[in-house]
């Protein structure tokens, strides 16, 4: 058995998110001495560095005379003159970044296609939904595994545009794949409902994990003590505006001063700041970057409540991260959150700020409710582990390798 995992997600994401899945799985595959090749070196990915195997140099550094350099200059000019960066430019940052690295990415694409045609590998696992390898896979004996993380592009096309490459490629990729991994039963059900041509016999569920309990305890160095926590990006279906409106209602009713801390996902946009200012929350809503897993664990450990207001998710790693360090979870009542969290969370209507506000007050004011959530969270998180996730990947790779040998 010999596995090849491609480079796409490491150029699509910054450290975290979907890339975390492959970082965790690859680490454990190597620990088990599984013969494995990643098309780009990811050992220093947490520092933002991807290594070209052929030169041992960083491959994801845009040159000085590139569109991304122009973007950075424009960004600095807007900052210097005190103007907000246009939202349409901020949303295109990753696209501009990848466009500026198109030569490097094209070289990696060519190498992966060459490896596939060599038939040296038994299983190919692309990490995202570009289809540069279509002809090579069709002409190779290598089996292909595809992971579907969610169906958000199909269910919320208004946020992405119907010409989005994922919408263009998902169906064809799924039909070509020898096996499809979904990261929750909810995602599997959505995929099969949206694409009835896909055989359910080749789709299985492998759960993710999110345990931060072994991270060292570090000081959070926050200037306030009591705070609610939001983690990750705040775009569109993440439903951040409902959280802000609920927090505003809370501030009006609750005499106890509570802050809202948002970590990761980039600093507040111009429109977010406008909403925060309009709601009179500028002194109470704060943003911090995530510099390490230890720091993230510290933010969870010291929070009064972790709030996850999304309208949709494919899984929800932050649910488990929060539970693993004893932070009570308050999340929207969507199917996947109930699948992952079960009795270890309190649920609210994600379209009703008043319901969210009432649930926050319930947890803050009733110690028994909070203690029960923490206890249930510690029990629930035991059902998920990255070791189990990696083992199930190995079992799948082995089964495809065996079928290939027949």
Quick rundown:
By secondary structure, this protein is of the alpha/beta class. The protein is built from 18 helices and 14 strands.
Describe this structure in words.
- There is one protein chain.
- α2 (about 20-30) packs across α18 (about 385-405) and α14 crosses α17 (about 365-380).
- This protein has helices at about 10, 20-30, 65-80, 85-90, 95-100, 100-120, 135-140, 150-155, 165-175, 185-195, 240-255, 270-280, 295-300, 315-325, 335-340, 355-365, 365-380, 385-405; strands at about 5, 35-40, 50, 55-60, 125, 145-150, 180, 205, 225-230, 260-265, 285-290, 305-310, 330, 345-350.
- The model has no long low-confidence stretch (mean pLDDT about 90).
- The two termini are about 15 Å apart.
- The strands form three sheets. A six-stranded parallel sheet has the order 2-1-5-6-7-8, with helices on both faces. It has a six-stranded parallel sheet with strand order 11-10-9-12-13-14, sandwiched between helices.
- The protein is of the alpha/beta class and about 400 residues long.
- It is globular.
Mean pLDDT: 92
CATH architecture of the largest domain: 3-Layer(aba) Sandwich
Q: Assign the CATH superfamily of the largest domain.
A: Glycogen Phosphorylase B
CATH topology of the largest domain: Rossmann fold
> Judging from the principal axes of the Cα atoms, what is the shape?
globular
Strand content: 5-15%
- How many structural domains can be distinguished in the coordinates? 2
Distance, first to last CA: 14 Å
InterPro entries: Glyco_trans_1
GO molecular function: glycosyltransferase activity
Protein name: Putative glycosyl transferase, group 1
Keywords: Transferase
């Amino acid at each position: 058995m010999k596995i090849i995992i491609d480079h796409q997600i490491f150029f699509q994401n910054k450290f975290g998110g979907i890339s975390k899945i492959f970082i965790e799985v690859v680490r454990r595959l190597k620990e088990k001495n599984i013969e494995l090749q990643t098309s780009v070196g990811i050992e220093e990915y947490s520092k933002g560095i991807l290594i070209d195997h052929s030169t041992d140099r960083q491959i994801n550094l845009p040159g000085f005379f590139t569109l991304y350099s122009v973007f950075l200059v424009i960004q600095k000019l807007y900052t210097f003159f005190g103007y907000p960066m246009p939202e349409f430019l901020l949303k295109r940052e990753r696209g501009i970044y990848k466009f500026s690295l198109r030569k490097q990415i094209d070289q990696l694409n060519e190498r992966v296609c060459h490896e596939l045609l060599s038939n040296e590998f038994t299983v190919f696992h692309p990490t995202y939904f570009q289809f540069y390898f279509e002809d090579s896979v069709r002409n190779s004996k290598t089996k292909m595994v595809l992971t579907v993380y969610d169906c958000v592009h199909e269910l919320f096309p208004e946020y992405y545009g119907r010409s989005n490459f994922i919408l263009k490629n998902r169906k064809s990729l799924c039909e070509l794949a020898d096996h499809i991994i979904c990261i929750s039963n909810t995602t599997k059900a959505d995929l099969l409902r949206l694409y009835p041509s896909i055989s359910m016999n080749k789709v299985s569920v492998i759960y993710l994990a999110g345990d931060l309990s072994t991270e060292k305890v570090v000081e959070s160095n926050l200037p306030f003590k009591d705070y609610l926590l939001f983690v990750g990006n705040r775009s569109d279906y993440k439903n951040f505006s409902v959280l802000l409106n609920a927090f505003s209602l809370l501030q009006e009713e609750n005499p106890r001063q509570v802050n809202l801390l948002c970590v990761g996902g980039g600093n507040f946009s111009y429109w977010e700041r406008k909403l925060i200012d309009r709601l009179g929350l500028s002194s109470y809503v704060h943003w911090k970057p995530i510099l390490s897993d230890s720091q993230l664990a510290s933010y969870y450990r010291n929070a009064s409540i972790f709030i996850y207001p999304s309208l949709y998710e494919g899984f929800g790693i932050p649910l488990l991260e929060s539970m693993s360090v004893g932070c009570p979870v308050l999340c929207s009542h969507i199917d996947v959150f109930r699948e992952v969290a079960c009795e270890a969370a309190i649920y609210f209507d994600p379209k009703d700020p008043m319901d969210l506000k009432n649930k926050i007050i319930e947890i803050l004011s009733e110690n028994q409710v909070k203690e029960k959530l923490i206890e249930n969270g510690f029990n629930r998180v035991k059902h998920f582990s990255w070791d189990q996730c990696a083992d199930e990947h190995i079992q799948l790779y082995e089964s495809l390798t065996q079928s290939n040998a027949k």
